[in-house]
Amino acid sequence: MLKLIGVLLDYPRDELWQHGEELLAAADDPALSRGRRRQVVAFVEALLAADPLDAQDRWLSTFDRGRAMSLLVFEHIHGESRDRGQAMVDLIDAYRKNGFELDAKELPDYLPLLLEYLSHRPQEEAKEWLHHIGHIAGMLAARAAERELPHAALFEILVEAGEGKVNLEILRQRASEEIRDDTVDAMDRLWEEEAVRFGTDAPSQECDPPHRSPARALNREVQP
């Protein structure tokens, strides 16, 4: 289930449409409730029915514009503080300790990547991780619902899997009161702020969200 949600939250590369039957089969997961299963199947069917270019453009508009819907987990916890860098180093160490190697441009706190890793870990460990990030998943679910995005159900499933005390109603109310950060005006303000950063402080291209193959995500195995 976690691997599938990671694939569905990841950037929809062209290869995804070549694995439609696999995605639909994975969506019919008995671990999910009947209602959640219907939502995931509907999400997959809608995605496969979409034009790849349109789906990719929607993904970029959703997750790569502004920070509120960022899939970089530690950005929601640490922002741009130094603590985020140390947290990522610690997470990379945890990955390597368990035989999970990253590609050069993959950021360890990218949610689809974390979910792929957790799909190979013991159930209790995965639940503990999801419990730890439950508030983040809940806030993403609330913001997705506020924006009428089908991804809301995927984030809600992560909240439920973590069995945390996350009050989605309160988070939805908070999301309804937030000022959107993905509008043209908001993006202009962000670019103005970033313009003062230069030299060694300039953002690197390595900070782009990793766009991985869904086929690889579905079949990748952690080496013992």
From TrEMBL:
Pfam families, alphabetized: Nitrate_red_del (PF02613)
Entry superkingdom: Bacteria
Gene3D superfamilies in the record: TorD-like
Annotated region (Disordered), positions in chain: 198-224
Gene Ontology MF term list: metallochaperone activity; unfolded protein binding
InterPro entries: DMSO/NO3_reduct_chaperone, NO3_reductase_chaperone_NarJ, TorD-like_sf
GO biological process: chaperone-mediated protein complex assembly; nitrate assimilation
Coiled coil stretches, renumbered: none
Keyword list, A-Z: Nitrate assimilation
Family matches, as PANTHER family: NITRATE REDUCTASE MOLYBDENUM COFACTOR ASSEMBLY CHAPERONE, NITRATE REDUCTASE MOLYBDENUM COFACTOR ASSEMBLY CHAPERONE NARJ
Protein's name according to its UniProt entry: Nitrate reductase delta subunit
Organism from which the protein derives: Stenotrophomonas rhizophila
